[in-house]
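hiii so um. not sure if this is the right channel but i have a protein structure encoded as tokens and i wanna go backwards to a sequence. like what aa goes where. can anyone help
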């Protein structure tokens, strides 16, 4: 069978509010799955009379998927290297789990999806392969990175086998040994905080007590990690007061250094788009604070830090 993969700026995104080029690791894993079965696979290139054209991931058992061939799928493409959360280049994405171990957030595509986690030894082998090809940083794009014994074992093995490659991942506000993650050279940890309103968090079934956000972020920062916060505005029935309080909360966390970076979007689920009151881009107004810049500049240690800061500044100025 001739299978053609036609890539778009939405191929690796869960929330499709704006186009972003992200290495489509799940598609790449599925492409390698078909290649190992003997099919003719065309990756982002012309294919005459293909039997199948694929633009988004298919429903293939995640645990049957091999690690992607990052040479075949051109993971070094400059489009992917411009991804905003990469600091050390070249960098790439991987995925150790499908779904989220919470899996109950009303807005999320991972809602009620079975959580499947790959074998630790397969994941470590993939990390080593990435290091062999020259990648310096990996961001894991699982809905939520595994915790508990899996995380403990992964960190212990990675710290011994591939200590130099930097890691990042998605994580919930929960009780995690951040010092252990730092020992395995984790850097950025992306938290879906969503709102400062406990009413809203309950409404979307986030399963988070807002009172635990700051203590969790403090633990992450003290461990040497760089938390990134994700927020949303325009929830159904959200008052303007609640949205202003969320905006102020984002600014506070950025000024105090509890978040190194942040992003925001307008709440959207199938059949509903939230009201946009203009607060999404206003999260960048935290940059008007002297305290914000003092903390940013005091963290600069090398050229990678400087380049990353410049990239974040440009991202804040050039708002799409």
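sure thing!! here u go:
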């Amino acid at each position: 069978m001739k299978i053609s993969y036609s890539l778009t700026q939405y191929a690796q995104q869960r929330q499709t509010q704006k186009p972003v080029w992200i290495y489509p690791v799940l598609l790449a894993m599925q492409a390698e799955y078909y290649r190992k079965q003997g099919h003719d696979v065309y990756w982002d290139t012309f294919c005459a009379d293909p039997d199948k054209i694929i633009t988004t991931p298919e429903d293939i058992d995640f645990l049957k998927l091999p690690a992607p061939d990052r040479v075949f799928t051109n993971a070094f493409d400059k489009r992917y290297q411009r991804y905003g959360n990469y600091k050390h280049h070249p960098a790439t994405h991987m995925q150790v789990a499908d779904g989220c171990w919470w899996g109950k957030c009303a807005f999320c595509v991972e809602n009620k999806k079975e959580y499947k986690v790959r074998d630790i030894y397969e994941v470590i082998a993939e990390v080593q392969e990435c290091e062999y090809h020259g990648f310096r940083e990996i961001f894991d794009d699982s809905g939520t990175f595994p915790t508990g014994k899996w995380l403990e074992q992964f960190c212990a093995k990675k710290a011994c086998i591939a200590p130099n490659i930097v890691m990042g991942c998605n994580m919930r506000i929960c009780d995690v040994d951040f010092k252990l993650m730092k020992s395995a050279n984790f850097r950025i940890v992306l938290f879906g905080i969503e709102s400062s309103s406990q009413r809203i968090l309950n409404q979307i079934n986030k399963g988070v007590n807002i009172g635990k956000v700051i203590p969790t972020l403090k633990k992450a920062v003290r461990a040497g990690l760089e938390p990134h916060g994700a927020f949303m505005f325009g929830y159904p029935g959200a008052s303007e007061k609640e949205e202003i309080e969320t905006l102020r909360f984002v600014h506070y966390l950025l000024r105090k250094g509890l978040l190194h970076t942040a992003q925001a979007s307008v709440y959207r689920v199938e059949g509903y788009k939230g009201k946009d009151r203009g607060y999404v881009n206003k999260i960048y107004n935290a940059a008007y604070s002297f305290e914000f810049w003092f903390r940013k500049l005091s963290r600069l240690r090398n050229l990678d830090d400087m380049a990353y800061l410049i990239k974040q500044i440009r991202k804040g100025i050039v708002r799409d």
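oh and The radius of gyration is 20 Å.
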